[in-house]
Amino acid sequence: MILIEMFLIFIFFSIVIIEYMKRKTILNIHTLIMGPYVAVAILNNWIATKFGYNEVSKDSLIIIIYAIIIFYFGSSYCSFLIKYKSRIKSCTNVDHEDHFSINMRHIQVYITIVLSVRFLDLVSGFLLGGYSKMIENDFEAMQLSGVPAHLMLSIYPLLAILFYQWLRQKKKSYLVLVILASILSFASFIKYHVISLFLIIFIYCAIKNKKYFIKGARIMIISVISIFFLNYFISFIMRSLEMSNDFYIYRLWTYIAGGSITLNAIPNSVASNYDVLDWLTKTFRPLPNMLIYSIHGPIPFDDIGIGYQIIGYGTSTGRILETNVINFLGEIYATDSFAFFILAVFLWGVICQFVYERAVNQKNEKYKLFAAVFLTYSMLSFFANYFSLSATWESLIWATIIFPIFKSKQKLEIMLERGS
After folding, report:
1. Structural domains in the chain (count)
2. The whole model's pTM is what?
3. Any transmembrane segments, and where (predicted)?
4. Are the beta carbons of 290 and 393 closer than 8 angstroms?
């Protein structure tokens, strides 16, 4: 097992070094997307197994190795095509902070309005149903839904701009709005809502200026762990529940590593009951669903998955550890078509590299915002397939269309003059 683990580490860092030699930065899609797969697998096998978690098996590690290599071939193929066809000169060392003009005052006003709508939504829920209604069914009444949910998703890209501008200008009003938005996202008690917001901000800032990548990575790790603990701690206090410290630690690692450990169920048994078409339907159904939901209602669809899998036995809690999530790679591999696995991961590498290249080599701000959102949900793939959620696709749409709305009047006048 140790040889496979060391080979996994060797393959990953070889690719990172190759990319560093080409771009003089460790910020790349392999670090962002494949890095978490490697880190989780190694930390689980070297540390978490001592506390009762199952190993990420040899066969599962081999799947990850295959994916890293195929993903790299896909990204390299994309880079080759870009250089051959368009001769785009790399400018990853350039700070793009002055390459756009946007009306920050209008952004602040819009974000304030959206946050007010979200706050009033929470207040109205409390006034109509009372405290007991707010906390029942895992805080269902506090979750993002309807118009407030769509509006909140629309400001995620703008919050990334706002935070980056705070880093440059240190205007307190910018930071205050980002903090308030984080709190109101956190209030849904769905962890990925606020985690994805933080990741979008982190990746956007790193794309804008690579110096924020290392600093931001450290802050992100601490922030995600803090969000997780606070999410459970506050929810238990609100429901007058008490849990041991061991519960929080085991719950954290089950959340982080569960999707990787359940990979073990795939190579050794027929753990899934779906094929390639089922996976494609699950992943891409949310996009048309958003467009026709209000007219026709949701597209009928049987959900797919591998069911609950035991991933260990807590040595200090004495409880069985289980989860029903599987990471993005495992979900693809479970279609039982290795040819499709190769094709899907290769194309994923192509798309991720294309999105990243456009973001770092083009001045248009919407490419950076789109990349921040797309790479965020690709980064979270070590946990699950977030592209099967409508919120992911809606976030990508907002990232594409929201920036042009807030271009400054001066910029628009310049564009009109050039056109006349």
Report:
1. 1
2. 0.90
3. 6-22, 29-48, 60-82, 109-129, 149-167, 174-204, 216-236, 248-266, 337-355, 367-384
4. yes
